[in-house]
Specification:
Elements: H1 6-12, E1 34-39, H2 56-62, E2 71-73, E3 79-81, E4 84-89, E5 95-100, H3 114-122, H4 134-138, E6 140-147, E7 150-155, H5 162-165, H6 179-185, E8 192-198, E9 202-207, E10 222-227, H7 231-239, E11 245-246, H8 254-258, E12 263-268, E13 273-277, H9 288-296, H10 300-306, E14 312-314, H11 338-347, E15 353-359, H12 367-378, E16 383-389, H13 395-398, E17 408-410, H14 416-423, H15 438-449, H16 453-470, E18 473-479, E19 481-486, E20 489-490, H17 500-504, H18 506-509, E21 511-512
Parallel strand pairs: 1-10, 1-11, 15-16
Antiparallel strand pairs: 2-3, 4-5, 5-7, 6-7, 8-9, 9-10, 11-19, 12-19, 13-17, 13-18, 14-18, 20-21
Helix pairs in contact: 9-11, 15-16
Length: 513
Amino acid sequence: MSGLSRRGLLKTGVAAGVLSLSGMPLRAQTSGGKFTAGLSGANTSDSWDGRTHSDVFMISAALGGVFDALTEVAADGSLQGELAESWEASPDAKVWTFNLRQGVTFHNGKAFGADDVIESLQLHVAEGAKSAAQPLVAAITEMTKITEHQVQFTLAAGNADFPYLMSDYHLLIYPAGQIEEAISKGIGTGLYQVQAFEPGVRFVGKRVADHYKGDSAGFFEEVELIAINDNTARMNALMTGQVDAINRIDFKAEALMRANPNVTIQEVTGNQHYSFPMLTKSAPFDDVNVRQALKYGINRQEMVDKILLGHGRVANDTPIGPANQYFHSEMEQLAYDPDKAKFHLKEAGLDSLNIDLSASNAAFEGAVDAAQLYQAAAAPAGININVVQEPADGYWSNVWLKKPFCASYWTGRSTEDWMFSSAYEAGVPWNDSQWDDPRFQELLFSARAELDSDKRRAQYHEMQEILRDRGGVIIPMFANFVQAVSSRVVSPDVVGNTAQMDNNRMLERWSLS
């Protein structure tokens, strides 16, 4: 059996899938060589601790590079086994049994087994641990080692999406009893073994011989990721042949890049969205009327036109996008309306509003320009936005989740519950608006365990309407993933759309001509 689609999983309530080697292209005839990518999103605080990963540089180096997870979302959106070979659920989707792949070894020679899975997942719920995957693992009430290659998970409540959650890029599998060393040195079961790692600078990996994925993945003999956070420098590195691929192209330089015969631009539509979260436990954002005023005071189409230059679409303050199964495409669109913004300010007892908006292009390319567009659009409503330009280095640790109003971005998630559990469930670490709505939370837990697709659709549609009307995050636009590669790079016909750079799996899926 090859990869399992989410639709099929939800229809039956039972998941079973084996590692689908046939779901990937056969190893290229010209396999080998060195692949170099120039990526943004690197920081001097980077490490091999998956709990801290938040951007493309470390995610690409770790997942699909040095480490593996239990499952993997394929480029076409189907679910495939990685370190898990197959899985099945109880009828209520509350108890899941995973059969682990045998014959797998870590880079230090240790055999992979059930203990590694259990200890690695427990990292995310350890006392004092800070992990965005904490809510995913906290839903597991019991982890049981049945055999060396079989683990059973008992959940607090049924979750039809559970196998998808196990593909989360934070949930890297480390060797039991050696986790501290593995995080320090980068010891995983992935296709590439660490040769060099300088946080915030570069990563070099060498292809593992006799890897369990055989010739179905990992077509480079050596890979190097170079941190190039500066947008112009990243474009130049590709144009001059210093690197083979880059993420997040500068749309203003797109025409020049397309004119270069040695460059190919990849563009895929997914759920990536740019946002402005408000800390709803802090005044004035604790007032829903203030939040509504700010939602009506932003010109979404202008941002799509001027920031994305058309490489995206208007969003409606919900993170559920066009690549999600239950995307509410018929929901009435919030429109730019300064008069309605003024009305909601008056409902909040205000004649005007003065607020700071923290932004940096580390959040997303064009974030500072987007904040300035927001500033101009909101002014006629009496909303005076002071744009605070923050340093790029340390933005995610010093600004996001800390400043009351800031720029942010999410790649989106493959399933609705995965997205909501990561950023909208009350109390989770990455709930970047600190939002807690009783009805939304009630629907979240109900939809998670619902196996009837029609009922689930109705619940997720209502949740999206609640976010639009009462939520603490302004999401003006969905942005396509736009990246570029040199002409010598061979990528599959279908490139993943749930994250940048082929779902962060370029090191696994691409090859050289």
